[in-house]
Specification:
Elements: H1 18-54, H2 56-86, H3 100-103, H4 108-137, H5 148-163, H6 166-174, H7 178-206, H8 215-241, H9 263-293, H10 296-309, H11 311-336, H12 344-387, H13 392-421, H14 424-451, H15 455-481, H16 494-513, H17 519-544, H18 546-557
Length: 565
């Protein structure tokens, strides 16, 4: 792993300035966070209606089997090319004057992006067709459900339509148009929710008994509505941003001696595709195991926990990871650039900026982890029991998931850095280790399910082991990449840690003391206690973590940096 860590040479394309990238990325992250809040809220409300109308089994099949199909097509088709395009300068020549004819077509640099972004559309079509026949051939137990195969076909169509957004998406990301992305996603999510609920209600009124014949088809129609809405939204908004027609984004042209796609982008994309395959196995391994071995009811339980429990991951972790990846990718360009294109002082500034971002995000993740472990594991099951009428299986799985979330968040931004700055040879080496971690995870998940009979909690525990191994790997890599880096700088103030620990002890003691109360009274009393202790913990952060608060504000404004000699 340590090979080439000290090397700063490479043939990646031109470097862009890290400070503007930081300003655009983290200032734009607020739009992504707002988007995720809206998405999770809309999904939460929709899921309540869906479970009531369609039942937990249909919800489990759609959330596990159908979503696994969709994510496999989308992730494997586009993720590698997206990561490769983040590693190159997408702004060169953007400000050069152009003739009226030139303005009617993409610039040379944008044409290279468009050519590369068209590859996932073709690849996704082939992958979607293969997966459909695999699903149909191996899904006999579930095929008895109404409209199962038509629902699969609609999901495949929706996946391909969503891939058609890629040229517009990468152009918007190259121009750091996070607000535009948030608008398009919000419209699409709204259409998906409307599509699911309307189809379910239609099926509810078409039948005279308790069964809903459209319960699976509703999820497929919702996904199709999402795909069409996001394609139309991007086309509409990008038509106002581009100096040429949107349809030009779907026509490949040769604009340089490298052909349609430069060798640098193509080679890097192939490497990232291999990495994406391993990462997909890691992130979707639980869904794969559940889809293969679990019953529909067990899928429904796991889907509830993963949807509700992943709210912090979607709202906070994912936007921060995406924004940090954009900054770290520019740091990689600075570290690997030819000395004639960037001064060593500029490179030091950009590398030190990345170090500051790492430390700030690390400390923030530690604080979020403290809250999730103390308040999430103790109070989320109580809230779930209150809402789900003492559903023990959901409550237990949710407690374990809250302990798992800090591992997910911490691993997210560490891997964002490692994958952004690693050279091609290092990425291959990283993929080998990720494959090893995948095997360890799968073995742990199988043991948890079949030997220890832990169900959903066992799958989540295996994921915790997986994330811990990946965090250790990233820690070793980062310690060698930077000349002087200490992870101790990420630790919260001892007073904050003490306050959270005290809150946990008080909560456990009061749970025993109040256990004689009626169920609802006990749950409401504990939630009120948790709210008061949470306010006290937040006050300790405000008092003792002013430096972190200042750094987060600077990060959001794009002004976080360190001085260099």
């Amino acid at each position: 792993m340590s090979q080439d860590c000290s090397k700063r040479n490479g043939n990646i394309d031109k470097v862009v300035d890290a400070q503007p990238a930081s300003q655009g990325a983290f200032a734009g992250a607020q739009y992504l966070m707002g988007l995720q809040i809206f998405v999770r809220l809309a999904t939460f409300i929709m899921n309540i209606l869906v479970i009531y109308i369609a039942g937990r089994k249909a919800f489990g099949v759609a959330s596990i089997r159908f979503e696994l199909l969709l994510s496999t097509v989308l992730f494997l088709s586009r993720e590698g090319m997206r990561n490769a395009l983040l590693r190159v300068d997408t702004t060169s020549g953007a400000d050069k004057p152009a003739s009226n004819y030139a303005r009617k077509r993409p610039s040379g640099q944008e044409q290279r992006i468009i050519n590369a972004a068209l590859v996932p559309i073709a690849a996704g079509m082939l992958l979607a067709g293969c997966l459909y026949w695999i699903y149909v051939g191996g899904s006999a137990p579930m095929s008895e459900a109404s409209y199962y195969r038509p629902s699969l076909a609609i999901y495949i169509l929706a996946a391909w339509i969503e891939l058609c957004v890629e040229p517009l998406y990468v152009l918007s990301r190259a121009r750091v148009l996070f607000k535009l992305q948030a608008k398009c996603e919000a419209v699409a999510v709204s259409c998906r929710c409307i599509g699911v609920v309307v189809t379910l209600l239609l099926g509810y009124y078409l039948t005279t008994d308790q069964t809903n014949p459209l319960r699976l088809l509703a999820f497929a129609m919702g996904q199709l509505a999402y795909a069409l809405a996001i394609l139309i939204s991007y086309a509409w908004h990008m038509s106002n941003e581009l100096d040429y027609s949107v349809w030009q984004c779907y026509i490949p042209h040769k604009r340089d001696t490298d052909g349609y796609i430069s060798n640098a982008i193509g080679s890097l994309a192939v490497t990232f595709v291999g990495q994406s395959l391993v990462k997909h196995l890691l992130t979707q391994g639980d869904s794969m195991v559940m889809a293969r071995f679990a019953t529909a009811d067990e899928m429904g339980t796991f889907a509830l926990v993963s949807n509700y429990g992943s709210i912090p991951a979607r709202v906070l972790f994912l936007p921060l990871e995406e924004a940090s990846r954009a900054v770290f990718s520019k740091t990689a360009a600075a570290a690997t650039a030819d000395k004639s294109s960037i001064s060593s002082k500029d490179a030091r500034v950009q590398i030190n900026n990345a170090r500051s971002v790492l430390i700030t995000l690390g400390k923030l993740q530690f604080l979020l982890g403290l809250f999730l472990i103390v308040f999430g594991t103790l109070y989320a099951p109580i809230l779930a029991a209150l809402v789900r009428h003492n559903d023990v299986a959901v409550s237990q799985a949710l407690a374990v998931y809250c302990a798992y979330l800090p591992f997910m968040g911490f691993n997210g931004f560490l891997e964002a850095f490692v994958h952004s700055v690693a050279t091609k040879s290092q990425l291959i080496f990283i993929n080998i280790w990720m494959a090893v971690f995948t095997v360890v995870y799968m073995l742990a998940a199988i043991e948890a399910l079949y030997r220890f009979k832990l169900g959903s909690a066992g799958i989540i525990g295996a994921n915790m082991l997986n994330m811990a191994l990946r965090i250790i790997y990233c820690k070793i890599y980062i310690s060698k990449w930077f000349a002087n880096f200490s992870f101790r700088e990420m630790l919260p103030h001892p007073a904050v840690v003490g306050m959270c620990a005290s809150a946990g002890v008080i909560s456990i003691a009061m749970r025993t003391a109040l256990s004689h109360l009626p169920s609802t009274t006990f749950q409401l009393s504990m939630l009120a206690l948790g709210g008061g202790l949470g306010v006290a913990a937040l006050a300790s952060i405000w008092i003792y973590e002013q430096s972190l608060i200042h750094s987060v504000r600077a990060l959001r404004a794009g002004t976080l940096h360190t001085k260099t000699d």
